[in-house]
Amino acid sequence: MLHLISAADLSHSDAVLILDTAEELAQVGDRSVKKLPTLRGRTVVNLFFEDSTRTRISFEAAAKRLSADVLNFAVKGSSVSKGESLKDTALTLEAMGADGVVIRHNASGAPYRLAEWVRGSVINAGDGTHEHPTQALLDAFTMRRRLGRLADLRVTIVGDVLHSRVARSNVALLHTLGAQVTLVAPPTLLPVAVETWPCEVAYDLDSALPKSDVVMMLRVQRERMQAAYFPSAREYSRRYGLDAERMARLPDDAIVMHPGPMNRGMEIAAEVADSPRSTIVEQVANGVSVRMAVLYLLLGGSEPALGGGER
Amino acid sequence: MTHTVTTETGAAAGGGRPRRLHIAGAALPGPGGALRTANIAVEDGRIAEVSDAGPAAGAVRVDGSGLIALPGLVDLHTHLREPGREDAETVASGTRAAARGGFTAVHAMANTDPVADTAGVVEQVWRLGQEAGHCDVWPVGAVTQGIAGSRLAELGAMADSKARVRVFSDDGHCVSDALLMRRALEYVKAFDGVIAQHAQEPRLTEGAQMNEGAVSARLGLAGWPAVAEEAIIARDCLLAAHVGSRLHVCHVSTAGSVEILRWAKSRGTQVTAEVTPHHLLLTDDLVQHYDPAYKVNPPLRTAEDVHALRAGLADGTIDCVATDHAPHPVEAKESEWSYAAMGMVGLETALSVVHLTMVETGLLDWAGVAERMSAAPARIGRLATQGRPLEPGEPANLTLYDPAPRGRVDPRSFASKSRNTPYLGIELPGRVVATLLRGRPTVLDGKLV
Ligand SMILES: [Zn+2]
Predict the structure, then answer these.
(1) Binding positions of B
(2) Is residue B385 assigned to a domain?
(3) Assembly ipTM
(4) Which residues from chain B sit within 8 angstroms of residue A127, using beta carbons?
(5) Is B26 found in the same domain as B84?
(6) Dihedrals phi, psi of B193, to nearest 5 degrees
(7) pLDDT digits over A175-198, tens only?
């Protein structure tokens, strides 16, 4: 595999290999010397057309722990449509000899365009409303760590599926890994033809919760109500928000996930986000391990990542 | 096979263009799919004779063997981009592309800069067409001032101008205001005009990037639902029936639209419709890697829609093929999908795509192609001297098409200034060998004259 653009491109064995590799690399983070020499001499560019400090820092930490040289390249969204084109930026990165480009972009499909213009590996760090495959990988990694398995796990994803790259990547990856996904949202926030996706669809959160091992709350932007996706933030929260009372409907060992950033009080209540069921903090730590695994496997470091080197 | 052109005597070489031309042994489409082989004598811009007779003295002889003779093609929907975007196309380059594609007349869409919404601008475009001389250019006038959708443009002044405008369109934008649309339909009755509607309900298509369906859902691109086209077509058919006016529907793209048109026609509504070559061939799954070559408005739809459009064109529910030739400079397509311009060039591939999708599938014979690509669009545009049968006394506007060769589309060979074709590297049948505009070759041996 050269690029990671869509979670749908990962086979079952690809996905398991990434998760297993991440598991071993996670041990590096637990050591006093948090570095492996694996990607020494390689250059990873973080190409961010959209502000996301959290995701950029996560990739940056992952690359640095593998000893790669990291270049951060931020392009302001507004200057893109007029002026510097993605192609010109790509040619610049080519000239700098980027071995891997991590791209975050507000336009769906931008990583596919980039992959036509650079020779290095393209890693999708979120493109528009399309996909965010490393988020799905870290979510799967978190579920497997907490619950011990992915096969037949019942995962309920709640919220703005229509505009969510996290939901698209999760549905594809979790299906590949054998989990059973149910999407819960008001019908306005589900894409037309969602029935063609490999998952169940429901409109009622309360009846879905008792049948969930995992409930993943998606961020819902308040501005969506201006386009009539729902009548008010209050009504959304009442019907689709996860509060303590609703959380009590979950089976005892079920977990609550959120890809962040959260709208506390909108899709998730503060007491839920901070409860022991919540994996939100671990998700951040797991993100680094999973991104290390992806960089390691795609950029094919000359040093063995595991079992050698500084150990 | 090569097609040679020889001058029987040296008469033409001395000065001016030859007044006589003799097409030997071309196949003329007739009823029931029949092809009649005959010689066509052209004299003083008209067809003098269609017979077995040999060439007259002093005639330029064109070898028509193996070639199908069609009346010169007429395009109801061409973006020539001049004035304003001469970097993408000019009247001269666009009409050269038209001639290469077998066209003898094009309707130049009004969304130029400045917009063709006054007698002055439409006369300018008309004059540029006359000067270029590769094919007739009939400007389309804007329905509303500046294509802004709020106030009627001076439709009568454009109709009375030298450009003699009969087709009015805000193409690129929908005349979405129902009252304005009703008034426009009524008003143009005074000079036998027609409103050509770009049917796109604007609120349902805010930010739309591609056909709304399974593919857009997966790709995370905002959807352009079929209903946004169908709702406007249904409304406009009802309005046209109510006020007894002529309505033309641009680039019909959905199966539902075909059904609505069929229903409206069955009630006697004066509605005509066009389909583009690309909507007869391409589907939305081509968008899967976000290549903006496939970005067009209305968007590529599903295989079911393609099937219904072909059936609609075959049975006459859709009256004609129109290219929606929409040239764009390279940088307008070399970007992220969402930022890329919408549109495809089409003049130089139109006949081949219709050959592939309609003739090779048995849905249309060559007489049907002549009707859908020449006679019908000429009638809709009220062009008296175009789209005429290939008979003695008629203007010698004709196209000689070789159906035999197949070749991969090479945009570098285009006469158009732009290269934004969705057919790059695709194998298409056929080749335009010659185009005659009032007896004067604009294309011979496949090359511009
Ligand atoms: Zn249009």
Answers:
(1) 77, 79-81, 111, 171, 198, 251, 297, 324, 328
(2) no
(3) 0.93
(4) 220
(5) no
(6) -85, 175
(7) 999 999 999 999 999 999 999 999
